[in-house]
Amino acid sequence: MIKGIKICGISDLETLMYILNHKNPPKFVGFICNYQKSKRFVDYKKLIKLVNIKRRNVNFVCVLVKPSIDTLKKIKNLNFDYYQLYDVDPKETKIIKEKYNIKIITALTVKSQKDVNVYKEYTDISDIILFDGKGYEKSIGFNHKLINSVPDSVNKMIAGNIKIEDVANLKDNDIFIDISGALENKEGKKDIKKIDKLLNIVI
Length: 203
Prior knowledge:
single chain; alpha/beta; TIM Barrel; 6 helices; globular
């Protein structure tokens, strides 16, 4: 059974408020906080306004790619429940978790079984392991059957070019699902109708 949905790449208040007030809100909402190559990147001033709101039981996730010490210091007092870390080794992940007293989603980019198996280095540190495609901002998929070897004792999340229509086929899996690109229009902006369709599937 799907544990919950994460809608990632939110960058405007109107969309965020729609998600938070939906009758079936997601488990997580993600914000791209330091990866400026992404069209979904949110600068610091805007980020403050977005996360400093009442959000019911939705977890706010700060998505970070190899964050610098300065970035971590800058965001440390913002209203986040999780840091989602790309390209951060286990030792540094543990330091960040303990120093900032924050839950961690370790994001692993996957192309082969070898990439999946890296999760073993993080199981004692991370609260959730996210298996994503190699595209970063490009929403590239991967063969999700590769994570079948990961035991259910691991809190798993999958991303990587997942479509709304894929969700029904994933309902029997003990995972969280992370969706971003499939919820956007041709201009790359989040589409309220697509978000509504997704959230009404996962009840």
